[in-house]
Write a structure and sequence with these properties.
The N and C termini lie far apart (98 Å). The longest helix has 13 residues. Strand 2 and strand 3 form a beta hairpin. With 174 residues, this protein is α+β, with helices and mostly antiparallel strands. The chain has a domain of 95 residues: Ribosomal protein S6/Translation elongation factor EF1B (Alpha-Beta Plaits), CATH 3.30.70. The protein has a 4-stranded antiparallel sheet. 18% of the residues lie in helices and 27% in strands. It contains 3 helices and 4 strands; from the N terminus they run βααββαβ.
């Protein structure tokens, strides 16, 4: 026996005819008739579909974990495909499912007190960025922008380079 996740999208007529638990009962009956066992049923209820299927805009969603022989999966898929009350279905092996994300923290209400943050360990300190030397060109006058403040300790002035057309001075050898 192998564990699978089964998702079924039912027509709302099933729920309207048999009550709110008709869809999960129908699914349980289908799985158990093929030698399987229902491990968990998550009945999402009535949801809006991404696109209409046969004039239906809403459907009844059920996500469940089942344990069934791999040979029984083929018969279950065939039965779900033939049933007119089932819009869509998907069966996946549980070991192929992605790892679920960790649970999120609940949202805070506006105006509610914010709990004090936990103390930060002193060993973890913010990284200190080293300032890169600033190169000033002699042809352009320096006009600092309003949002930039230069510190005298971090600013380095570089002498202008010799023009390219002048050859460097070389002393004659004696």
């Amino acid at each position: 026996m192998r564990e699978y996740e089964l998702t079924v999208v039912y027509d709302l007529a099933v729920q309207e005819a048999g009550g709110p638990d008709a869809s999960p009962q129908h699914l349980t009956q289908m799985v158990e008739s093929r030698g399987g066992k229902m491990l968990n049923i998550d009945h999402w209820g009535r949801r809006r579909m991404a696109y209409p299927i046969g004039r239906a805009m809403d459907a009844d969603y059920i996500v469940s974990r089942i344990e069934i022989d791999p040979a029984g999966v083929t018969g279950l898929e065939a039965a779900l495909g033939i049933d007119e009350r089932v819009f869509r279905h998907l069966i996946m092996r549980a070991d192929e499912l992605p790892v679920p994300p960790p649970p999120r923290e609940p949202r805070r209400q506006p105006g509610a007190e914010v709990p004090a943050p936990a103390p930060v360990a002193e060993a973890v300190a913010a990284p200190v960025e080293e300032a890169a030397p600033v190169v000033a060109e002699s042809a352009a006058p320096e006009t600092p922008s309003s949002d930039y403040t230069a510190d005298a300790a971090t600013t380095t002035e570089v002498a202008p380079a010799a023009p390219a057309d002048e050859a460097p001075a070389v002393e004659p050898q004696a």
